Amino acid sequence: EKGGYDHFMLKEIMEQPNAIKSTIEPRIQNGEVVLDDFSLTDEDLRQINKIMITACGSAFYAGSVGKYVMEELCRIPVEADLASELRYRNPLVDEHTLLVVVSQSGETADTIAAMKECKARGARILAIVNVVGSTIAKLADHVIYTWAGPEIAVATTKGYTTQVAVLDMLAVYLARRLGKLDDQRNKELVEAILQFPSLIQRAIDLNPNLPALAQKYHGHNDMFFIGRNVDYAASMEGSLKLKEISYLHSEAYAAGELKHGTIALIEKDRPVIALACYEALFDKMMSNIKEVKARGAQVLAVVLEGNRQIFAEADDVIFVPRTEALFNSLPEIVPLQLFAYYVARANGCDIDKPKNLAKSVTVE
Ligand code: F6R
């Protein structure tokens, strides 16, 4: 049942190229993103002045990627908020809000509650869900299924990446309908989406050294992830993967926040995993990497394939294949899932069933 793999998590990581293929292929037709399940008239669309994304855990981190991508392409305000917070803060949503709810199981209690709060205030609700017929799928006005197939390991992998793929597609779809994408730019983005399955496969194939890197880093008790823009969004998921299955303490910080406190924790040999794939901000990341190096950190950098500059500073490097800059989160999370997996393995953890965690959190 594990398809020859030692754990469901590894099997599910390896299934990602196919899972993503099932997610995207039916939704690209004649060079356009087509979301048949999302029936928005032009009038409906004109009414929307804000997009709010809500979810828990990894699904929230997928939503955080979606915030960067959607806001950049659609040029309307996009907020991502934790469902457990949104539900209790008398949210400012109304009939002009599109609420995007993200959930693999479709049964997460806080997510359902946040959704109901927003529905009561008139928001239009689009759910991105994996499980057909789940509670969230039933409550939503529109549903886009992620088609990842069943996910058994408690730590999500293909659930998360298919959510990100749908959010990337949704961003292109909405931007196109809002008149924010010309034919040429639309073509480039759609072509990049069609490459997602091979991109994910390449992200796996490019990094055969991950078990060795895990051997080098697994004995540390604290690690920091840093990144900017979509790299920051991906770093939060990378950090969660590591902590939930390996029980190492790790935290993700927006790299610009280091100076505002966290840098006090950087000391000799402290591992810092620096995500620096978003090239527009690469120089800024290089300065952050220099700052932590100057305080003795060991830096494991995650950069685009072909980047040579990084060797001047990084102790170790993970390479990520190139795509449209806004879509970087997708290939870059894959080696970080594998890194977490091999670190947990090196630490002898029960990878598919981490302690204290349930696959679906149906109580508050
Ligand atoms: C982490 C993980 C959880 C879930 C969260 C939301 O690996 O799996 O953080 O992402 O509990 O679950 P869903 O997506 O089912 O609403």
TrEMBL record:
It catalyses: D-fructose 6-phosphate + L-glutamine = D-glucosamine 6-phosphate + L-glutamate. One of its GO terms (molecular function) is glutamine-fructose-6-phosphate transaminase (isomerizing) activity. GO terms for cellular component: cytosol. GO terms for biological process: carbohydrate metabolic process; fructose 6-phosphate metabolic process; protein N-linked glycosylation; UDP-N-acetylglucosamine metabolic process. Keywords: Aminotransferase, Cytoplasm, Glutamine amidotransferase, Repeat, Transferase. The keyword Repeat applies. Residues 41-180, 213-354 form the SIS domain. It comes from the Bacteria. It is found in: Cytoplasm. The active site is at K359. Its EC number is 2.6.1.16. Homodimer. Catalyzes the first step in hexosamine metabolism, converting fructose-6P into glucosamine-6P using glutamine as a nitrogen source. This is Glutamine--fructose-6-phosphate aminotransferase [isomerizing]. The lineage of its organism: Bacteria, Bacillati, Bacillota, Clostridia, Eubacteriales. The gene is glmS.
